[in-house]
Structure formats: C-alpha cells, structure tokens
C-alpha cells in the first residue's frame, strides 16, 4: 500500500518560531508551469511589528558576541546548507523552472557567498577601523559597530541566492534582520530560516516575512525601531515613498539594485550597516 505524502507547510519565521500570519491570510505559490507548489503566509502589519520586536530583543546578544564567535556561527549555517542542498535544489527548480544543474549552481553559489561573508566577521574592524594620528598627549581609535535592526526587501527575481546576498552582509557586524522574501519565490527563504533555527544563530536574529513587499515594506520603512533598510529588491514598488518614510526616522537606506546579480558580494554591503565609534584616550605622562 502506498503511503500519503506529507506536504510541507511554509510559515513565517519570527523570533525563532514559525507562526502563521496573525491575519490568517495565505497565497498560492506556483511553479514555472503554473502548477500549485505550496501555500505561503501573507504577512501583515502586525507580523512586521512582531518581527521588529523580535529583532530588537535579539540585537544585544548577537552584537555582543565576539567577531570570531559570529564567524563560527555563520560558518555553521553554511555547513547545514550544504547538508540540505538537495532540498534547496528541488525548491529552486520547482519554483523557477530551472534545470537541476542550474538550480544546483545557484545553491552552490549561495553557500559560497554565505561562507565569504562569514569570513569577514573578524576582519571588518581591521579595514573599517583605524588608529588615527592626533596632536597632543592622547590617542584616537575608530571602531566599527552594528547599526541595529536592518529591514531587507530581498531581490524578487531570484530565490535562495538573492536572499542570502541581501541578508548575510547585515549579519557580519552584529545587526539583526527583518527580511521580506521574494513574493514569487519565497520557499527557499523559509527553508533557510529553518536552517538558521537549527544552527547556533539565536532566535530573532533573522526574521523572515513572506507575502507582498508593497504591503509590508511601508510599515518597516516607517517603524521607529528599524535603524536601516535595504531596498535592493524594491525596484518594482514605489521605493521613493519608502525612502521618504525612512527619512522621518533617520534610517540608513540602500537603494534598489537591478541586474543579473543584484546585491553582488562586496565589502561595501557590510559597511553600509555599520556605524563608526571614535574613542579618545589620554596617554600616560609617565
């Protein structure tokens, strides 16, 4: 007798848990051929606010960890991604219509990109910080620190690679993230959240919302507890209004990007979400 398949349920990822939308809404995710793949939660304003609360609560612990420890944690995520590679290949192929070879190449590149950013955790201070020359009996040090809670509108035309490319750099220096996944290709983002939940990444460090970026992004852009917003995947919505909303609460803003590899790996994507703290200290006169 053949057994019944157990279809996967894709939910939101907030505070290390996987709730349905408080609104009870969902939407159908279909493959390239129009076939039904899954129901995904359609996040609401309340879900966005809950995600920000979770990210804020997780900030002190994640930013307070040593750079070496954050690097080890992020490397562990890459290990788990490698172990679940077949699942991500299946999801990407089903959503986009790509061949398994093409989907596998995307997964491999996403893993490599995650490892690339993990390697930066204990190197950022050496490049972004400095011992500054000053005149007088004191010295001056500039040290990079995380900005805080970063909202991310992930690239909308890719699945796993675009999501990783936007989220990983924000984590390097200790920021926490609320990410709005691709509306069309959300499955891999939730599966990645499951990987994070079974790794050493503390709950709330990465929160994933699925649904309509046009609906959710304005609430994140105007939220006073969000310190920066990455609009890399917001080119298809009214991102100028989002920039205006972000200005009201003095957020850092990264504007939308387009092209085959939006959010390409770069050191600048890390420093975009850092602040520079300058410390003055007197020299001993003895």
TrEMBL record:
Signal peptide: none
InterPro entries: Ald_DH/histidinol_DH, Ald_DH_N, Aldehyde_DH_dom
Alphabetized UniProt keyword annotations: Oxidoreductase
Pfam families: Aldedh
Superkingdom assignment: Bacteria
Every Aldehyde dehydrogenase domain range: 29-234
Coiled coil: none
Single GO molecular function: oxidoreductase activity
Protein name, entry field: Aldehyde dehydrogenase family protein
